[in-house]
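FORM 7B: Structural annotation worksheet

SECTION A. Query
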Amino acid sequence: MPETIAGVAIPQTPTVAEATRFVQERTNPLLFDHSRRVFLFGSLRARELGIEPNPELLYIASLFHDTGLLTPYSDVQQRFEVDGADHARAFLEERGFSAHDAEVVWNAIALHTTPGIPTRMGPEIAATNLGVLTDAVGLGLERIDPRLVEEITAAHPRGDFKNEFLKTFHDGLKDRPDTTYGTVNADVLEHFVPDFRRGSMVERITNSPWSA
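SECTION B. Predicted structure
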């Protein structure tokens, strides 16, 4: 039976069903509920802007966007966004999706924490970013009908989201601090790790091997 939440239909495809099971089994309720909310909010924000993402690709991007924070993904020394993007692309390619569609999802996940760029790209990339911003920091929340917000959070409760989400970020990044250079992820380690010191582009230039 088709599932609709806040007027947004969950895509009814075998890949969506498999991705739902895959991510639900390999993450935790906090990230699973967050990821589903990202899809729902991203879909609503897309409607507001008059853009039409492919629902299946947006769903996959939303489901996988934070998987890089958790094992078995977090043993790779690369940005967690890239980690999750790599696994999502492999997931799609293994199921016969085109290289183009897999690349769209890869970009949506890899860029979801990058300010200012995703909303200038394709609809799936923009909608993923907007869904993340709405659920994580409340950007644009005031433009969504409160009744729809209530329906979404009833289906996928937030619980103690703010504190638990930051803890999940810290746990996923603490063993690979160098991957946070130049990203908002450094904010998390700077907050939680007393001796953490973020690198800067000024230092990288002044300490380079060039003489001038």
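SECTION C. Observations
Strands lie at 4-5, 8-9. The domain at 4-158 is CATH 1.10.3210 (Hypothetical protein af1432).

SECTION D. Sign-off
Analyst initials: ____
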